[in-house]
Design brief:
CATH class of chain A: Alpha Beta
Largest interface: A-B, 68 and 68 residues
Shape of chain A: globular
Helix content of chain A: 25-40%
Number of domains of chain A: 1
Structural class of chain A: alpha/beta
Radius of gyration of chain A: 20 Å
Largest sheet of chain A: 9 strands, mixed
CATH superfamily of chain A: Ribokinase
Number of helices of chain A: 11
Order of helices and strands of chain A: EEEHEHEEEEHEHHEHHEEEHHHH
Oligomer: homodimer
Number of strands of chain A: 13
CATH architecture of chain A: 3-Layer(aba) Sandwich
CATH topology of chain A: UDP-N-acetylmuramoyl-L-alanine:D-glutamate ligase
């Protein structure tokens, strides 16, 4: 089934220890769309300025992303500039020019309104709330947010959380929102608002999903060439939601499957600047790395019993 | 088979957001011994002052730890005082009094010399080197170290690494030693010195093992009551090495099994101050949590194929 994403399309200038790019394709909805397009058809709702390069549109169209919800306004496209130091886990923002994004007023084309799966990428939570009400028939809704909205519009962020099935959040933002250091305790606070699952993104440490039905954690794929972490979270979300949207299965098993797909696609994203790697990514690449990730994290099927029984040491000898 | 550990036995005063303890039982060899004693018989080589409390000795003896290598010198026992803030991942040292530990000169009792498994806990690498030469017939040798020795005696640390089968190190120290940010690249540098495996401890993020035969990572058990992280790494090492020592299996499978046991035992250690939890721990507790950790990190045996095949989306539709 199709996925509708509402978010940003931007031009990013990024500096990392591996190099730099200027005005490269970026934005939460961009990364999300390219990742999700590996799994299902994607409808994008966003805004760009009339300076937005044709090559950006072409990249998305080549992935069959439906751009009828991409509004082009007179003016400049949203620009972000940031720098990552040796610690690639967080960026220092050097410059933010909202430009036409400041007036973003998502317009959902009529035949997008029945999209069964909705992802609210990181935008003003008031807009997220409006969209989730417009697509009220969606069978699966998910959201992301960021520190800026948590500090400036916490109550609205809470309202959005109450309205969705899945909350994706990074660990620092989860702690900020809940004012709680322990992630399990923090995630439970969000589950109590209504979502079925809280997916906590931990950058190079992988991710964890806290669900009403259980807990699942996966380490990151151990990439040796982390080049630019921008878009890791959004492409994680794209593969996670895309994987879920590719079938009607909403079980705990399907959620965990989505987490593994998200981890793998994010691991490719960070290996190049901008969308360079995710835009060339094929399902065969994902599947190959998924098998590797399984071998890096999974024990043999017959192993659990042996795991426990193998270490025979008589209890009395320990007393 | 038996394990010989050479390390510190100390009295720790620790402050965390959960409370504080004064002059509680601590030290790398203490945590290691108590954890390893769940799996096999342990021989401890360390030094304490004549002020060391009898209850400390009793605790170790009740776990059948062989204390014939524990020297008692006139003077005061090694004392450490530290504080953990909200970020429980690292301690601020408030006070270190080496006392008799400053003259530590490990004396290996004659019948300890043929111990088949040796763990060099964090002590002066020159002493580690001497001990590894004295127990040269050990079939499995492992070491830990710390930032202090890496900056003051890096070359000697390297010599110890060349002499052992397994290096246990936390991620900050691995980066410090290799001057390399990427953990995979950094671990490979150590593997090139000779060890068969490098176990990287990441605190609340779990751990990863880089081996000549593969890579394996496990997230931490998601404890909701982290009280005092002191000794997490040493009790991880105790369970890891103890698990390996409990059989003659040194396969990659056995190493991964050890990592899972280490993770579980460490997760108990941090739930109380000092050795309070690890000293009461039983194998049944470990086994129960091991099953939980498996359910939190493992996918169903028949799942890998489905994981990959389930997301059917025709390739041509993506182009």
């Amino acid at each position: 089934m199709s996925v509708l994403v509402v978010g940003s399309v931007a031009l990013d200038s990024v500096e990392t220890p591996a190099g730099r790019v200027t005005e490269a394709l970026g934005g939460s909805a961009t990364y999300f769309s390219l990742a999700a397009s590996l799994y299902t058809s994607v409808r994008l709702v966003a805004v760009v300025g009339d300076d937005f390069p044709q090559r950006g549109l072409t990249m998305l169209q080549e992935r069959r992303v439906d751009l009828r919800g991409l509004e082009v306004l007179p003016g400049r496209t949203f620009r972000w500039a940031g720098r990552y130091g040796e610690d690639l886990n967080s960026a220092e923002t050097l410059d933010t020019q909202l430009n036409v994004f400041a007036q973003f007023d998502p317009k959902i084309p009529g035949d997008f309104r029945d999209t069964p799966v909705l992802f609210l990428a990181n935008i003003d939570p008031e807009l997220q709330l409006r969209v989730v009400k417009e697509i009220h028939g969606a069978s699966l809704t998910a959201m992301d947010t960021m520190n800026f909205w948590i500090s400036s519009k916490r109550d609205v962020v809470t309202e959005v959380m109450r309205s969705v099935d899945v909350v994706l959040v990074n660990e620092a933002e989860l702690r900020q929102y809940t004012q709680t250091r322990n992630l399990s305790t923090a995630a439970r606070q969000i589950l109590e608002l209504g979502p079925r699952a809280v997916v906590v993104k931990k950058g190079e440490y992988g991710c964890a999903v806290f669900g009403r039905d259980g807990y699942f954690a996966v380490p990151a794929y151990p990439s040796e060439q982390v080049c630019d972490p921008t878009g890791a979270g959004d492409s994680f979300a794209g593969a996670f939601i895309g994987s879920l949207a590719s079938s009607a299965d909403r079980s705990w098993r399907a959620i965990r499957r989505g987490v593994l797909h998200g981890s793998v696609v994010a691991s490719f994203t960070v290996e190049s600047f901008s969308v360079d790697r995710v835009v060339t990514l094929q399902r065969e690449d994902v599947d190959r790395r998924l098998s590797e990730l399984v071998s890096f994290t999974q024990i043999e099927p017959d192993w659990e019993k042996e795991l426990i029984d193998a270490n025979q040491y008589p209890t009395e000898a320990r007393r």
